[in-house]
């Protein structure tokens, strides 16, 4: 599940604009999805998912033939349960290569493979309940959004007509032609320009436009810059530092994800901390807020 980082706008109901997930978790989701896809290709043409009516009537799992509902054929006495446990142990050994473990239903000791055996279907009542949980009335406004996602392979895809609050953990990469894990998702909606294929996710401005000359004139007197020659690497322009800090604040990214156009993220972080320590940052943000910074 992605961790949501919202653009501060004074509203507790603001939709997420930047979603992150650790690379290790994205790679794990990727491996699971690829294994599942391989299994689906292997059994292409076989409809293994039971309809609810067949499941409710007691039809066994179509993948392994083992019971889903009802009394097990081996009985429920002590001897029968021991035989079921032995049968489960053999089943787990046969599916050890699946590496995804087993599942079983409540009040049924018979085990099934997470990779090979599809889960039982939901009942109509369960589907309605799940729909209410996932899409309560408060979330039924603006139910679609456009996301730009960065994958574990570093390629970028655009997802249209998706949920405004959630992005699937894996996506089919059009360049690699395989399923990849999503490490970052940026909600762009109508901000993408026509003809922009968006190959670099860091080029998205996420609703933040760099300071105009007029806006800079409001705050440039607040920051102190060094005059005269200076040894070593040229100092990053203070206006760029302020822009970088505003971009980071508005988009919710981490300092390490700061686009290269703002220079070194370490320098931006250090200079930003200096502005905070000197109370200059508070004055900058207050001045811009009073001037109605978009």
Automatic annotation (TrEMBL):
InterPro entries: IS402-like_dom, Transposase_6_like
Pfam families from the UniProt entry: DUF4096 (PF13340)
Domain Insertion element IS402-like: 211-284
Name assigned to this protein: Transposase
Organism name: Gordonia liuliyuniae
Lineage, uppermost ranks: Bacteria, Bacillati, Actinomycetota, Actinomycetes, Mycobacteriales
